[in-house]
Amino acid sequence: MSDALFRGTLAELDPDVYELTQLESERQYRKLILIASESTSPLAVRDALDSSFQNLYAEGYPDEDTRWLSEEDILDYETRLAHYRRYSDPRYYKGVEYADAIEALARRRCAEAFAANGLTADDLYVNVQALSGSPANNAVYHALVPPDQTVMSMSLLHGGHLSHGAPVNRSGKVYNIVHYNVDPKTQRLNYQTIQDLAYEHKPKMIIAGFSSYPWSADWARFRAIADSVGAYLLADIAHVAGMVVAGAYPSPVGHAHVITSTTHKTLNGPRGAIIITDDHVISRRIDHAVFPGEQGGPHINVIAALALTFKLAKTKQFSALQHQVIRNCATLTARLEERGFPIAFGGTDTHLMNLDCKYVTGSDGTTLSGDMAARILDLAGIVVNRNTIPGDTSAMDASGIRMGTSWITQRGFKKKETTALADIIAEVLLATTPYPLKSHSGLNKRAKVDFTVLENAKLRVRELAESAGIDFVPTDHDYPHFYYIDDKPKREGDWIVYELRGEKVRQFLNVVLSSDIEALEPDQSQPTRCYTPQGKVDGTLTCKSPYAFLLSVP
After folding, report:
1. CB-based contacts of 270, cutoff 8 Å, min separation 6
2. Catalytic: which of 262, 333, 366, 409?
3. CA angle, 343 as apex, 412 and 29 as ends, to 5°?
């Protein structure tokens, strides 16, 4: 019979989308990514995401008793398929016998990876269906806290997360949120202050977990505070889950009533989330809050990738990686401090750190903003994000940048390479000049960077990136995607021809060339001279259209 299947590769069926996927892969190869919430998932994890599990709907959950099956029992197909054919399962859809197996496997491996502090995998209840960290947190709210009740969490400005009750987030609209902050003198958590705040407000739930606070949490102290006011303790370990599994960061297992985490940060897995508890009643409420409370059918292909992620997380290689991530972050922090930069929160003992950009000032006292610092570093090939630090009053005017070392460590960075990267960051930022710019909204902070320093930094980043590991073969695109000062120009005979176009090209040419731009009509040419810091260059300027020109030089 004939069918209606679209056969062909992505490159054949949609070359434009294929090209974008190749460009993004090349970007990840060419740039050094210090986004603390990102990592590169292994090729095998990406293969699992591309599996035929993508095609399924599987609303509901596997049999509850599969939580206590060993991996060997879960993969005993004769027994499990016989059970499925006789008793079916709790899901709303059929045709899910292998979805049941992969989800049971992911849950079991997750429980084994996180078992700690005297609790075994058999003591833990795991949900792997939440689509990401915020839906996971929302499910916990849904399960444990009635609307309008009080929840206590860390302020977003001091290192918390949007889903921890920020006013713009659903959690901040549905619940009464009370925030704790870092101590203004030490820039560390003051647990006595948190205790006093809990006594005052009697929260229904306390959230301990951070998106930019760089120090380890004292889970036992948080649990004692929660118990003193009859509150649930939610540990959001999205950023540090990989280090928790590796024993490089304290585990909240046995302390927190509920643990949530994303799976794509230090766990190096696909974009997803997990929810863990050691309480059977809470487990049932959370499962119901995830489905049908928060979402419909789970993404079974993601769960397949999670099963692999947790298997890899239990290896010695993964443990060594996580400990090296922390060492590299300490190296990055120490070197930037040596170069004179203040370190927000006073340092780090995790995978991330925060740089205070206010150290760099313009002649009029304008300080470098986190946004300008991040944008300029991105031009140099170093990817970071702006972030609020203690003292900031708005996320829209952050004065810090957050940097994490997971991705570069995966690519092979050790102390030598991390120190070199820190020097590049310092030299680029110290070569910037912040200044104010008037706009309809008032004065905005802007910055410019020395051209020579920037271009030299790009070359040094390129050298580091090319020596680092990747698990794919990148494409090789040039301008306008990726370009360097030492690129060889394309010649037409004895001449090099540059195409210059854009809405401000005429103003630009009036500044850098000797030509009478206004006298040139389309398809007309005239001799010209270009003035550069390295000297004068004679050539020919040709007008193609009012906003497009060709500059030919020998």
Report:
1. 41, 45, 46, 48, 49, 263, 264, 302, 305, 306, 309
2. 262
3. 25
- Classify 346 in phi/psi space as left (phi over 0), alpha (psi -120 to 50) or beta: left
Task: Using alpha carbons, select from 143, 142, 135, 177 the residue that is nearest to residue 160.
Answer: 177
Contact assessment for residue 399 and residue 367, using Cβ atoms and an 8 Å cutoff: yes
State yes or no: is 547 an active-site residue: no
Active-site residue, 462 included: no
State phi, psi for 91 to the nearest 5 degrees. Answer: -75, 160
What whole-number distance in Å separates Cα of residue 276 and Cα of residue 507? 60
Q: What is residue 124's three-state secondary structure?
A: coil
Same domain for 173 and 273?
yes
Instruction: For residues 90 and 338, give the distance between their C-alpha atoms in angstroms, rounded to a whole number.
Output: 59
Would you call 311 a catalytic residue per the annotation? no
Mean pLDDT, the chain, whole residue set? 96
Residue type for 498, please? Y
Domain assignment present for residue 509? The answer is: yes
- 370: in domain: yes
Are residues 291 and 354 both part of a single domain? Answer: no
Listed in sequence order, the residues at least 6 apart from 518 whose beta carbon sits closer than 8 Å to its beta carbon are: none
Give the residue from 421, 414, 211, 418 showing the smallest Cα distance to 321.
414
Q: Active site residue: 271, 327, 339, 460, which one?
A: 271
* CA 148/CA 438 separation, integer angstroms: 42
Answer yes or no: do 106 and 214 share one domain. Answer: yes
Q: Which of 31, 80, 265, 445 is catalytic?
A: 265
* Enclosing domain of residue 111: 51-314
* CA dihedral over 335, 336, 340, 342, signed as positive or negative: negative
Assess whether 265 carries a catalytic annotation.
yes
Whether this prediction's pTM lies above 0.90 is answered by: yes
Any catalytic annotation for residue 262? yes
Task: Label residue 341 by pLDDT band (50, 70, 90).
Answer: very high
Is pLDDT at 492 greater than 80 in this prediction? no
State the residue for tokens 């951070």. 210
191 falls within a domain: yes
Query: Is residue 483, in this structure, part of any structural domain at all?
Result: no
What is residue 554's predicted lDDT score, i.e. its pLDDT? 87
**Three-state secondary-structure class, residue 1:** coil
Q: Which of 433, 467, 501 is the last residue of a domain?
A: 467
Whether 460 sits among the annotated catalytic residues: the reply is: no
Which one from 19, 26, 38, 59 is the annotated catalytic residue? 59
Taking residue 399's Cβ as centre, other Cβ atoms within 10 Å add up to 26
> Are the beta carbons of 128 and 138 closer than 8 angstroms?
no
If asked whether residues 194 and 289 sit together in one domain, one would say: yes
Q: What is the pLDDT of residues 195-220, one digit of tens each?
A: 999 999 999 999 999 999 999 999 99
Instruction: Please give the pLDDT value at position 106.
Output: 99
* 543 CA to centre of own chain: 45
Judged on CB neighbours under 10 Å (0-12, 13-18, 19+), 484 is middle
Q: What's the Cα-to-Cα distance from 22 to each of 18, 31, 473, rounded to whole Å?
A: 6, 14, 10
